[in-house]
């Protein structure tokens, strides 16, 4: 794609000349004769860089650069006798400067250098984020259920289809999303993960769609949203079932049209990000009840991958346990005794793979380096020891009723200590608070 440049200079003749030269170099160039006109252009377009005359009749150069800092690379135009202005501009956040009259070779060299540096900076940030948030992406296990999941991933990954991933908390839905991204043509770009239940709705909307300066109290500068960060990549929306109705409507529009607006903005932006979403809730039933938009559900459910809970693929427990033991061991992987492995295979795993991972991490810490993981290192009591959890129901309960009852019992056994309950369930404290709120458990 052609790079777009905005030229803001009040000298009409020089402005037109600069635009013509930039177009001849292969850029798309748009002109503005004042800062007010430049602001109007920015409301309509997203330039890759701005070439700005430091002295404009309607605004101060330093103030403009401060306003634009962090949003666009800025190349300052200044007179030969005003190099101090250029130095001041660089200190304020300008990227580079050119002196008038502008040498055409220097113009092209400077513009291309600024654009390349901006691109390198963006990719550097992408890879830093990728390394910081890296997780083991392999889907371990050779059970029939996991073979079916991998077959579904192989089928859908090369396409741009939206994917809905269903599964209990801790079952590995994000791993599936990562595998879809890594086996797609977008693997070289970013997968942006959004936790749909982690923020208040207004903050979540701002994080997702971005906001314009002045959109709300404290919005002192423009901020690009995560949808924009996922350009050419994948946007993974975790816990889509917790998203409110207003944002559901906006998500539907983005998925169907590829367009959106920042919070407080009037400019229509576009995205080609691929959407992969996940939930541990029954959004099919929620759509029937009216608590989840049916049109969004039908849009999401065109391709569904269901991740089985760990209790339904017990043959995968052993290879998973050995994988996690190798991951957390600092020197050589710790072996797991037959008694400990039997205990692992017999455990209920309400927190699924996440709970197993937490249990092995704890065991590696407790076990002495270089020795083996024994049953007492796992931190839970085997069945038949007199301390089993027994759940009783009238009739046949659904999964939500089982989850609610088990949560209440775990909290009661640990005196309401949410940190301990979260550790037992293999989930984060934030998620335990969310479940408590969801089921009204006290």
Keywords for this structure?
442 residues; alpha/beta; Rossmann fold; Helicase, Ruva Protein, domain 3; five-stranded parallel beta sheet; 45% helix; elongated; transcription regulation; ATP-binding; sequence-specific DNA binding; DNA-binding
Overview of this protein structure:
GO terms for molecular function: ATP binding; sequence-specific DNA binding. The modification 4-aspartylphosphate is found at residue 53. Pfam families: AAA_lid_14, HTH_8, Response_reg, Sigma54_activat. Keywords: ATP-binding, DNA-binding, Nucleotide-binding, Phosphoprotein, Transcription, Transcription regulation. By secondary structure, the protein is α/β, with parallel strands linked by helices. It folds into four domains: 4-129, Response regulator (Rossmann fold, 3-Layer(aba) Sandwich); 144-306, Rossmann fold; 310-386, Helicase, Ruva Protein, domain 3; 389-442, Homeodomain-like (Arc Repressor Mutant, subunit A, Orthogonal Bundle), CATH 1.10.10.60. Helix content is 45%, strand content 14%. It has 18 helices and 16 strands. The protein has helices at 12-24, 35-42, 61-68, 83-92, 104-132, 144-156, 173-182, 201-209, 226-229, 245-257, 283-289, 294-300, 317-328, 338-346, 352-366, 399-413, 418-425, 429-439; strands at residues 4-8, 28-32, 49-53, 55-56, 59-60, 74-79, 96-100, 163-166, 191-195, 210-211, 223-224, 234-238, 259-260, 269-270, 274-279, 304-306. The chain has a five-stranded parallel β-sheet, with helices on both faces. A five-stranded parallel β-sheet has the order 9-12-15-8-16. It has a two-stranded antiparallel sheet with strand order 4-5. α1 (12-24) links the parallel β1 (4-8) and β2. α13 crosses α15.
């Amino acid at each position: 794609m052609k790079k777009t440049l905005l030229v803001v200079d009040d000298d009409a003749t020089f402005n037109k000349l600069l635009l013509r030269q930039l177009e001849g170099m292969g850029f798309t160039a748009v002109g503005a004769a004042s800062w007010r006109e430049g602001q109007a252009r920015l409301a309509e377009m997203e330039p890759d860089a701005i070439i700005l005359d430091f002295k404009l009749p309607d605004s101060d150069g330093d103030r403009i650069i401060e306003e634009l800092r962090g949003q666009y690379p800025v190349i300052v135009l200044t007179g030969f006798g005003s190099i101090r202005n250029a130095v001041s501009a660089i200190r304020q956040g300008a990227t580079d400067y050119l002196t008038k009259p502008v040498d055409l070779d220097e113009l092209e060299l400077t513009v291309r250098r600024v654009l390349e540096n901006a691109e390198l900076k963006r990719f550097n940030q992408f890879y830093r984020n990728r390394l910081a948030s890296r997780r083991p992406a392999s889907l371990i296990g050779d059970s029939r259920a996991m073979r079916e999941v991998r077959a579904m991933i192989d089928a859908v990954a090369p396409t741009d289809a939206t994917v809905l991933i269903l599964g209990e908390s801790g079952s590995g839905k994000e791993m599936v999303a990562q595998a879809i991204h890594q086996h797609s043509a977008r693997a070289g770009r970013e997968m942006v993960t959004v936790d749909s239940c982690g923020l208040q709705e207004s903050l979540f909307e701002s994080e997702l769609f971005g906001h314009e300066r002045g959109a709300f109290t404290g919005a002192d500068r423009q901020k690009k949203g995560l949808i924009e960060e996922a350009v050419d990549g994948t946007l993974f929306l975790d816990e889509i079932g917790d998203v409110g109705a207003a944002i559901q409507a906006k998500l539907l529009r983005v998925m169907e049209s590829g367009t959106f607006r920042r919070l407080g903005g009037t400019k229509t932006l576009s995205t080609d990000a691929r959407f992969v979403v996940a939930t541990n809730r029954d959004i099919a039933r929620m759509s029937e009840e009216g608590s989840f938009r049916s049109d969004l559900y039908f849009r999401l459910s065109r391709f569904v991958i269901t991740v089985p809970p760990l209790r339904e693929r017990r043959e995968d427990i052993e290879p998973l346990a050995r994988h996690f033991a190798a991951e957390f061991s600092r020197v050589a992987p710790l072996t797991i005794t037959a008694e400990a492995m039997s205990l692992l295979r017999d455990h209920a795993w309400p927190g699924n793979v996440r709970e197993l991972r937490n249990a092995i991490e704890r065991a590696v810490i407790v076990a002495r380096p270089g020795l083996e993981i024994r049953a007492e290192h796992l931190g839970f009591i085997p069945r038949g020891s007199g301390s089993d959890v027994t759940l009783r129901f009238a009739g046949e309960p659904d999964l939500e009723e089982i989850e609610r009852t088990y949560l209440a019992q775990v909290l009661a056994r640990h005196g309401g200590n949410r940190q301990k309950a979260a550790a037992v369930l293999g989930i984060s404290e934030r998620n335990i608070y969310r479940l408590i709120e969801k089921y009204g458990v006290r």
